[in-house]
């Protein structure tokens, strides 16, 4: 199980500083949607430049204009870019084609998708599928990452699966039952008093549970 550190609502330099403190315990670094919206492709470029040996995920949440958006993310240094699963088939196909041409990866965000839609998405078998509990669902809807318990659908058994949204040490045990390939962690690390220690605690939790992939 890989740890993806989500960097949101920060300056680029703040994001780099936090990632450096967590670096030893994380695998992938996510340039969050808020960084991309505020600072553009510079945020991806600077973070990839600071961490050339880490996978960098551009959480651009493409829903249209796929060729352009995925292209500029990859040009800026991203290894993975995200597309919304509720996008049109034309958008999804385009994203998938671009990843193949660039020899990169796509992450399909399953936010607000139905099981019927998810089953159709399973054809993109080289993508990472992200079960995502949104920020608004957490803050306004009162949902927690315990909602993930029954999320893994049978048609994703052979695909890479990620989980995101409200992940903390308390919910890691239930998440590990899903055996996700990637667990995406944001404020539980980025807002911790001791970032290095917080990141290490997640890594140790994964290793202690014997769910390392």
UniProtKB/TrEMBL annotation:
- SMART domains per the record? OMPdecase (SM00934)
Gene Ontology MF: a single term: 3-dehydro-L-gulonate-6-phosphate decarboxylase activity
- Identify the Gene3D superfamilies for this entry: Aldolase class I
Concerning InterPro entries, the annotation shows: 3-hexulose-6-phosphate_synth, Aldolase_TIM, OMPdeCOase_dom, RibuloseP-bd_barrel
**Which keywords fit this entry according to its UniProt record?**
Lyase, One-carbon metabolism
EC number(s) for this protein?
4.1.2.43
Q: Report the pathway entry.
A: One-carbon metabolism; formaldehyde assimilation via RuMP pathway; D-fructose 6-phosphate from D-ribulose 5-phosphate and formaldehyde: step 1/2
Q: Does the keyword Lyase apply?
A: yes
Q: What class of enzyme is it?
A: lyase
Q: Which reaction does it catalyse?
A: D-ribulose 5-phosphate + formaldehyde = D-arabino-hex-3-ulose 6-phosphate
Which GO BP annotation is one of this protein's?
one-carbon metabolic process
Where do the Orotidine 5'-phosphate decarboxylase domain residues begin and end?
2-202
Q: Which NCBIfam families match?
A: RuMP_HxlA (TIGR03128)
Q: What protein family is recorded? A: Belongs to the HPS/KGPDC family. HPS subfamily.
What is the protein name for this chain? 3-hexulose-6-phosphate synthase
Organism, per UniProt? Priestia endophytica
